[in-house]
Records
---
Amino acid sequence: MSKFKNIKKDFPIFERDINGNKLTYLDSGATSQKPNSVIDKMTEIYKFNNANVHRGTYVLSAETTQEYESVRSKFQSFLNASESDEIIFTKGTTEALNFLANSIANKFMSEGDDIILSEIEHHANIIPWQMVAEKYKLSIKYVKVNEDFSLDLDDLSSKLSSKTKVVSIVGESNLSGMLPDIKEINNLVRANSEALLIIDGAQLVPHRKVDVQDLGIDFLVFSGHKMLGPTGIGVVWGKKELLNSLDPVYGGGDMIEEVHYDKATWAPVPHKFEAGTPPYVEAIGLGAAVDYLQDLGMSEVEKHSDELREYGRKVLLDIDGVNVIHSQETIAGCTFGMYVDGVHAADLSLMLDTHGVAVRAGHHCVQPFHRKLGIDATIRSTAYIYNDKEDIDTLKSALISSVEMLR
Amino acid sequence: MSIREKVDEYKKILDIFPNDQEKYQYLIEKAKENDSFPSELRLDNFKVNGCQSQVWLVPEEKDEKLFFNSDSDALIAKGLVTLIASIYSDEKAEDIVSNEIDLMEEFELGVILSPARRNGAYSMLKTIKEYAKKLIT
């Protein structure tokens, strides 16, 4: 029997009733729901193990420290990283990109250097670069998006040069589900520049098997809460030698080796990047989320996503009056941006809510991409492991009746 | 009619509808009835901040009373702002400022009237009170 058949039972939120309907949650691109195993693990730590990590010489602290550090090893295996020290915990993707932007610009960039992003990036992969670009007098170039929502890799090639120090690209579009060819991007970056390649994996890592060594990239960033884990925890994976060469951005407790009144030396990687008490309960909760995904098997997670995407394409692409923004490549994420001419996305999502259907409305933090497409706002359906074909059917019928009411 | 009486009137109407869907439908109808807003007044300085859609509220003073003209590019938000504008229109600025009715408490209007501070209805009310305050001072 499919591992996904009764999966909703692992997620207590699906016991809820929304406006007299069962919950059809299609907003996992914003945040995923949490299985009992993650919630229970965090409760267990608070109830029976709680003590600050890396500090106490007593049982509780030793146990929590061991649990916290073991999550790095879980990610080493999950991402096929060469060492567990290559896993740095952050608050999430946004903080991870802010950290990388500041640390890399400070260490490796000088006036006139280029940063290459793409036209479909999330604001979290634009704003930190704009901020450092202003401070260090750098230029930002944006790789064009094609009409089929794929990235124009010829345009990337033409923009790469010896001045390019960073290329930071989304691993999966949060609006169209498009999956850029990361290996090909990596080849182009290596062949035409000496830039560091960062992949924003916020939407990619929850859904697809990612092997950082096979991809050949330099950094991968992602959030825990989009992959069944709690909020307030995310990851930067980086090649060890690069992490060793970067300086910390935040100073404080736990990231030092020695402190004097006039100077300090840093602890080795990964701890030099984790100043202050880390969100260790969240990290341990995220470890339980990784266990849950590993038990399912990421290849099964991918297969499930592919099946739902194909069903979504069959069911959602031909609804009268509904325009769909979705990748035209064979393989893509199970994400569908949608808009209806003459109907506001906010109205549409409020009406869908009355059917128990939860989708996001707005610009989904990709305002420049919306502007490029000439649209103010969209609604977005993103499915995850607990969704099934019935959820897509519910979305379709709710969409049809909502559009009818709003026109 | 006083602000209190108008709120009670709308409460009675909204209570007739058994669910959010029908309440939203009522707001959509209110929005469609409100077709008097001149498009040239869709100006940034009349925009209400903090709404998911674009909402405009334009005050007008007549015979020592305030009137509000309203618009939105989304129907449900337009219905809501039309309703709120009609409650506070034809009232003295002092009465608007001193009125302490909490619409979020009074009306059951699903997620659009949830008592979150960063919520559209909250911003609409704040805008109306600010206009009224400016007239007094």
Note: Chain B is about 50% helix and 10% strand.
---
Amino acid sequence: MNGRDVSSFAWGALRGYPTRTLLMLLAMAIGVAAVVVLTSLGEGARRYVTDQFSSLGTNLLIVLPGRSETAGANPTTMMGETPRDLTLDDALALRRSYSVRRIAPLNVGSADIRWRGRQREVTVIGTNAQMLAIRHWKLSQGKFLPATDMDLATPVCVIGGLIRRELFGATRAVGEWLRIGDRRFRVIGVMRSEGRSIGVDVQETVMIPVASAQQLFNTPSLFRILVEAKSRESIPSVKQFIVDTLQERHQGERDVTVITQDAVLATFDRIFSALTYAVGGIAAISLMVAGILIMNVMLVAVSQRTAEIGLLKALGAAPRQIVTLIMAEALLLSALGAGSGLLLGEGASALIRYAFPVLPAHAPLWAALSAVLVALSTGLLFSLLPARRAARLDPVLALARR
Amino acid sequence: MIELQHIRRDFLVGDQTVHALDDINLCIDRAEYVSIMGPSGSGKSTLLNLVGLLDRATSGQYLLDGDDVTTLSDVQQAQTRNRRIGFVFQAFHLVPRLTAAENVELPLVLAAVPVDQRKARVAAALQTLNLTDRAHHKPDQLSGGQRQRIAIARATITEPAVLLADEPTGNLDHKSGGDVIDTLEALNRRGITLIVVTHDAELGARAHRRVLMRDGRVEADTPA
């Protein structure tokens, strides 16, 4: 018997019992589709979170004043005591490394803004021109803060889209003078609304040059310094450079904390990958259940077709040929089931992507491949028992029954 | 051609041993036409299964064309059944989802005969039995007589030397039973060894040699 004969015989047997075949296909397809859909959801969530983080900036190092012995972003480091403030001069000193591409000092406070009698309390961010590139922000109108010396307190500001709408309404905002606290600033640009951004909501902030912010809030210290390294590889050396430079400037005191974006990102990446593996594994259990169903169905098929198997033996089928025929039938069944499950799963993922465009739900290749592999191997494995039972069938008894 | 020497076949029923065949000695020559008759439980079907290698003797020797087939492995026995022995059953045993032609083709498929040869041989076999127009019918679209003749075509497609028929007319009316017997006898005239197991005295009497069995023994062996 060659391969074509075996497969056409198996195909004929499957078509001979359409209800049974369809039900089995359904079980197998649901198993495979479950793996595909669940892993694509997990993968989508992972990509969503990593995208969110990289939208905060790539190769980013964040310098915080104060230091605690425990590394990482926990409340103590965020709000630790500040022996020495970070200053503009500190920020300027960090520009000296070749591996540093951009630096943005950051000063945050809240203040009342007023324009023609309308008033609102907003978060005011003091920074410089490079912030735009570091954070991958976009403008919808006008320009960002001018690229002047950092210690120049120019009276200009860039406002968020929400503030423009609430304060100016239909009036053109760029060029207008705005009062922030007790100072007047000219609006030179409006931020474009960002689709996704964790952390500061750009929509509701007003950005002014860092020196102006220091005057406004009457403080010489900075809240953060954002440093963008030239490449991912140079991040550790830049981190060392920052710590060393600031230690030297702060009279030998190591009183700053440097957080790297990648460390946080890698953690989330690991968490979500683990989650994807976990849901994939759970879904794989449903595949095993489908495998056991195949075994049941094949056992029923063998006893249903006792006479046929006895006949095949009488016509000269060797035990091995009987095993091959039964297993080919199971394999074909699981292959068809896996195929339709793959289609079903990919279709469902596409539907999810269509319904929730922010979630890039693509099943990873390994998940789709292993789902199909598990389907095929359970089909084979669980048909072994029915196939061997068929091969051992006594032809005399098998043919006597009618 | 078929030589049975001191064949015994014991079955264990509960804790009792039943001698289905008790020291059978039988020689059947090439192209003989033999009927095996006897009451139910006389062992005639067991004998046929044994000759057809569907069953193994408890003791004794079975020579087919001079070869000792009692000691063959399962695979070799399967091969022997495929090439040298044909079966016709009372209940036809056609595979219901296959067409008549596909049913006839089955032994050739199992023997891995190439497709083009297969088709030609099946067509020729159906032609001989005047069943060409029924080739693409499923068994349930055929009459009983037609089904049994398809089964005969299947049994003889590998050109075996021996054709074993177990009550070939048992499920048929008189007319189609007659057709089936004519077909079998025509094959016998062309040189096939035909062994028919039957209850039907009239059918048994047509054979050239009549073997009568009782309680697992050959009671009478009358040559024509």
Note: Chain A has a mean pLDDT of 84.
